[in-house]
Design brief:
- The protein has 2 domains: 61 residues, no CATH class; 65 residues, no CATH class.
- 74% of the residues lie in helices and 0% in strands.
- With 140 residues, the chain is mainly α.
């Protein structure tokens, strides 16, 4: 049912499974607790692992809430704005030639940097648009 099976996992892995309510289904957590009980791991050890996981989860929620309001410094925004067309061009080239070039948006989204995500996207679009307008006006 689970790969690798619950029974074949280490005691530390089982403690992690039993404690992590976010990553594991209730059925997996229950099976992990049964296996820990079968191995003679104390209930106290399981409860301690759950308390640590709960503290980590709470700390992660606090960090993600803090990240949501983080903003770029003015100098960083200026660099993104100026470099925008080159960054976008590199992204397009990377798609064509199958190599990895990141604009940083995925990482910002994963870290819940909502304000930075919006800023970066806006700067990339605005910077690229400005360069296109400048180049178009120079070519006339």
């Amino acid at each position: 049912m689970f790969t690798p099976s619950i029974e074949s996992r280490s005691t530390q892995e089982l403690l992690s499974i039993a404690a992590d309510q976010e990553a594991w289904q209730p059925e997996a957590r229950a099976l992990a607790e049964m296996e820990l009980d079968r191995r003679g791991v104390s209930r106290r050890s399981v409860d301690e692992a759950k308390a640590v996981a709960s503290e980590r989860y709470t700390a992660d929620l606090r960090q993600r809430a803090f990240n949501a309001g983080e903003s770029y410094a003015a100098g960083t925004m200026a660099r993104i704005f100026i470099m925008a067309p080159f960054l976008v061009l590199m992204k397009l080239i990377s798609w064509k030639f199958h190599f990895s070039f990141r604009l940083g948006l995925t990482e910002l989204g994963a870290g819940n940097f909502k304000k930075k995500y919006r800023q970066r996207m806006t700067l990339l679009v605005a910077g690229t648009s400005l360069w296109i307008l400048v180049l178009a006006s120079l070519s006339r």
